[in-house]
Amino acid sequence: MSSLREKLLYKAPCAYSVKDADFDTVNSFCEGYKSFLNNAKTEREAVAVAVAEAETMGFTPFDRNNTYKAGDKVYFANRSKGLVLAVMGKQGMENGANITVAHVDSPRLDIKQRPLYEDGGLAYFKTHYYGGIKKYQWTALPLALHGVIIKKDGTKIDVCIGEREDEPVFYISDLMPHIGGRQSEKPLGSAITGEGLNVIVGSVPLDEESDALKLAVLSALNEKYGVTEADLITAELCAVPADKARDVGFDRGLIVSYGHDDRVCAYPSMKALLECDSPERTCICIFADKEETGSYGVTGVTSAAYENFLSALCRCFDADFATFCANSTCLSADVGGAYDACYGDAYDPKNSAYVNKGVVVTKYTGSRGKSGTSDASAELVAKITSLFDREGVAWQTGEYGKVDEGGAGTVAKDIARLDIEVVDVGVPMFSMHSPYELASKADVFAMYKAAKAFYTL
User: Fold this and answer.
1) Residues of the chain with pLDDT under 70
2) Domains in the chain, please, with CATH?
3) Is the peptide bond before 262 cis (omega within 30 degrees of 0)?
4) Which one of 235, 282, 374, 452 is CB 3.0 to 4.6 Å from 413, fit for a cystine?
């Protein structure tokens, strides 16, 4: 009976039970991942960290006028907010490439172009939230300020305040429960408004005159960065949680951090690609921007920038671009929702992903009636899962939740537009889009193994 049970029934294995996934190996890999999380809280920072590491591994900037051979390693940085890493394969470009696409933008609070004001004895920055968030989760937290300021003369100033122990942090207040009766009666989605997410940035006036708090903040900014209020108009600043990635649980098997979505797929994909030396097929890792707001804009995956890069790469090998796309395969490396027993009513337990069960292969995303999905073919799902079985990658299938509860989308539909076969493969997680998300170390390592196996396809 036991042999029949094993033959006919399906059960996803524990990610720790597969080959080369002992806790020490998993934990060691995740220490590097935690460092990446701490140093890459924005898409600009993620690209900068990745480029620096790629250059140490022999990658050079792509030159469309060059000729390349098998084993050559190149990168293309898209306006400092998107990135393509490529290792040339032994096979011709007409045979296609193995491509992973992850996004490195995360929900956050963008600082408005005219942000600074004072009221009630405090100085504030006004914000505009970026991506889908629960607004009430962003109050009463220590926040750090990240971004760039571009001065009138073109000088770019990198800004990062609140990450070091000796630096100040920033804060959004919430109403005390003693007088919050009416607020508590409101639905969660409206108890805190977008216009109410104002970041406290100062409290000590410069003098007794009007605008003394604004002037004090501007004086501090001018002393540190040499900027004025007019320079904030051209700035690109955001507020993100200030805390570092931390282990969770007595066994330290989970990681809580800001920005798991989607650096939890970007980092393992990048590490696997950097280890490719002489693959059979060309291997490509893409870091995309703007996924949380629809993938639009010049750095989003719908931008022609990435298509143009792939086309230029084909021309370097005198390969037909359409043939290249038709023969390529892509993993849309994005997170999935993990089954949360505390909110079990929102899930279909039989079709949910679980922590410590490895990567989640998601045939279709979208919402309700599969709206906004590319829906991977049965042939592709069989091809990828068979590869994972062969290479000892822990995997499972899953959906975001019950059909009528909503859903989510990824860049898969945008990749499919190029006639590239694509399926979603990523790490399941808790508390997606909250300031601090939760992921399993075993699943992070499984994503690395999945990408590494995929690059050998």
Assistant:
1) 1-2
2) 2-106+258-454 (3.40.630.10), 108-241 (2.30.250.10)
3) yes
4) 374
